[in-house]
Specification:
six-stranded mixed beta sheet, about 475 residues, Rhodanese-like_dom_sf, Metallo-beta-lactamase, Chain A, sulfur dioxygenase activity, Oxidized Rhodanese, domain 1, Mito_Persulfide_Diox, 24 strands, 18 helices, disordered C terminus, alpha/beta, about 20% strand, about 30% helix
């Protein structure tokens, strides 16, 4: 028997390939499904089942395309939701044979109504692993407030109560040596504080996971699980609907999005249509020169999450500017979160635009050393675009917190006639912020190179110039 976790860092997402006696199952596949087909082919196995732990919100699953290409049925746990494709709706504790191994569906509502874990039983009948989806993470549990954005009567309080019961009655009674394989790790917005580990034993989670404390009452659990939840990214409900109703063939999406546009075609397209230019290059390169109106969302960061958070219309037409050779990757990662309307990329990249003599923009930046002088000698306006929790932990005195994920609110406090110095943790989010704001007419934003990390490492600021509420009490 073989179990392989296929982890995708930009989504903090784990898909799983399970195989026994030439039969394979895939749990929660990503949209680019050829990787699973290739893996099965290399091992001379056939994909027999596609198991979905729930209707995902943070990415578009590959279940529809994988079923179309392999003929394997798509399996969900108990649900009354009508899907736009054929699906096998399992009942609680239904067992599926995979060679001499077995996979048991365990209905565990709470994150969503249909949330289901899959228990892997090996050839000898021993329970080996539990694939928990978004019900149980390492160090955390799934947030219960997402389904209400699709079904209004499913309040967070109702689902939190269901989650408590599912954990206590369905998961915690299982063997302590069972390996827990969750659908997400640290960085996912599907929980509040996920651990960095990608698997653990159930026994260790009972000792270390706050939500599995033995003396925790349901009322206490509901209060703790709902405390501090921030609104989910706007694209979550749209991804849920795509996962329920189906979506366009990903091969067609990639073919359309990877159409090469010469610089004149590209110029006509962005000027004649409501097309957004997404520049996926590294922020340190982008800031030196870019096409006016471009948004910089670098591939080497949480690309999909920020695309889904900031581009409000999931049907927005998009053209790509990227490093040579990363065009397909850019379109693929857009499609992972349902942005299927990429209509091409600039052939030759930004250099082609620059060599064509077209107008370019840049984002001015300042070194930590020069910023330190300004900060000490005269008052400057400072924007901290990190999350509120990061800001509350530590920030430069006098900075205004304008989190990137609430950029519309940030725009309300910025005076277009004033100059602002902006920072985040390391420069990725501040460049996204600056590029989006510049495309909307905010010209006087200067990026502090390296953000908080560089500021602290430079030792040009005394620690007293940072506020850390937890140490000041």
């Amino acid at each position: 028997m073989k179990v392989e976790q296929i982890y995708t860092g930009c989504l903090s997402q784990g898909a799983y390939y399970i195989e026994c006696d030439g039969e394979a199952a895939v749990i929660d596949p990503l949209r680019e499904v050829d990787q699973y087909i290739q893996l099965a082919g290399e091992r001379k196995a056939s994909i027999k089942y596609i198991f979905e732990t729930h209707f995902h919100a943070d990415f578009v699953s590959g279940h529809v395309d994988l079923s179309r290409k392999t003929g394997a049925p798509i399996v969900y746990g108990p649900t009354e939701m009508e899907t736009g494709f054929d699906a096998l709706i399992a009942h609680d504790h239904q067992v599926f044979n995979l060679g001499r191994a077995k996979i048991k569906a365990i209905h565990t509502p709470g994150h969503t109504l249909e949330s289901t874990c899959y228990l892997l039983i090996d050839e000898s009948g021993k329970e080996k692993a539990l694939f928990t989806g978004d019900i149980l993470f390492i160090g955390d549990v799934g947030r219960p407030d997402l389904a209400q954005h699709v079904i209004a009567e499913l309040t967070a309080v109702k689902l939190a109560g269901m989650l408590y019961d599912s954990l206590r009655n369905k998961i915690m009674p299982l063997s302590d040596d069972l390996v827990i394989y969750p659908a997400h790790g640290a960085g996912s917005a599907c929980g509040k504080n996920l651990g960095k580990e990608k698997s653990d034993t159930l026994g260790n989670q009972k000792k270390t996971n706050y939500a599995l404390r033995g003396n925790l009452s349901k009322e206490e659990f509901v209060k703790e699980i709902l405390a501090g939840l921030t609104p989910p990214p706007a694209y979550f409900p749209k991804n849920v609907l795509m996962n329920i109703k189906g979506y366009e063939n990903v091969d067609e999406v990639l073919q359309r999005g990877t159409k090469a546009l010469n610089v004149h075609q590209f110029q006509r397209l962005i000027h004649e249509n409501h097309v957004l230019v997404v520049d996926t290059r590294d922020p340190s390169i982008f800031k030196k020169g870019f096409i006016p109106g471009s948004w910089n969302i670098g591939l080497d960061g949480s690309f999909a999450v920020w695309v889904g958070t900031l581009i409000k219309d999931i049907k927005q037409k998009i053209v790509i500017v990227s490093d040579t050779g990363r065009e397909k990757e850019s379109v693929t990662r857009l499609a992972r979160v349902g942005y299927d309307n990429a209509v091409g990329y600039l052939e030759g990249g930004f250099e082609a635009w620059q060599n064509g003599g077209f107008e370019i923009n840049c984002i001015p930046s300042i070194s930590v050393a020069d910023f330190a002088v300004l900060h000490k000698t005269r008052g400057v306006k400072i924007l901290d675009v990190r999350k509120k929790s990061e800001f509350d932990s530590e920030h430069i005195i006098g900075a205004i917190n304008t989190p990137l994920n609430y950029i519309e609110d940030g725009a309300k406090v910025i005076d277009k006639t004033e100059t602002y110095y902006i920072y985040c943790a390391g420069g990725y989010r501040s460049m996204i912020f600056a590029s989006v704001m510049k495309s909307n007419g905010y010209e006087n934003l200067i990026d502090i190179e390296g953000g908080v990390t560089a500021i602290k490492e430079s030792k040009r600021f005394e620690l007293s110039e940072f506020v850390c509420p937890t140490t000041m009490l």
